[in-house]
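Hey, resending since the last one bounced:
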Amino acid sequence: MHGVSLVLQTAGYSVKYKHIVVVKRGAPENLRIEECDLREPAAREVRIKVLACGVSQPDVQNRYGLSPFAPKVPYEPGCAMVGVVDAVGAGTVRTVPGTRVTAYPPFGGYAEYLYLPERRLVTVPSSLDPVEAAPVVVNYLTAYQSLHRRTKVKAGDKVLIIGASGGCGTAFLDLGRLAGLKMYGIASGSKSSILTKFGAIPIDYRKEDFVEVMQRAEPGGLDFIFDGMGGDYINRAFPLLRRGGVLVEYGNPGNLGGTLGLLARSLVPNLFSNGKKVKIYGAGFVLFYRKPFLEDWAILFRLLAEGKIQPVISGRFPLLEAAQANVLLEGGQVVGNLVLVAPDLLR
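The structure tokens again:
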């Protein structure tokens, strides 16, 4: 494509590519397909042909403005992209065309092509299926770092996963199984089979009070709780911890007020909780300290290559059918991950 575009541009033709833009806050109908000129990369910039991009809750939350860090409209969504370098600008030192890459924290993954500074790229092994690698970029990273950096889980630990059937939840289940944890998971009854597949004990939040269930099942308390739902769950779940137990909150608090409230709630229990702690996880720290993220992506990509983890993919959509995928995700019936895929990978 690089050579073809250069020839056409030299001949005076404008080569186009398509991408998705959020034109205003709100429903998936505000995702619009637009065209851009396919230009050559600027200095120290690379052009990436997108192969796959996960459709995740952060995409939905940003579109509705339910995040203190939501980008200003209009913007290009998509924060779990895997692609291949198509062209490089002057001054690039580590990247050559053909290199498989991801980047975080990116926007713009809902696109045929994406331009990024070389310094933001992370190499992805070319042997991996990009559709399976896409959930690793955000969902598995969140789960792995919550399990092994924010806490230090060990085999036999008793854990509760709140919101266990979604993209992040199934990543916790997969990595928790690998770590030898005794897992309980909260999800609707219709999704219980995915929990049992990974060895977790399902709790149907529509029919059962998870607090009562856990008090009966683990009267001595839980070692760890991982909450991606927020709201009242943190207050109800916290007393279920044993002395010295930890609750990790990784869900989006929704706005600046929610963020400040979460910080306050994490501080107060830590001061008056008889040894129990609340910790907050946010992948945004990659902006300040990349080393642990690079280390953990390398571990996760290796685990995927070795077949030791297997992301749950419940749907693959053509790359530009992002609106349909977002409608499905917002409907609440998705188990695991939805992935947008380049047309040549759908054949």
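The two ends are 19 Å apart (CA to CA).

Sorry for the duplicate.
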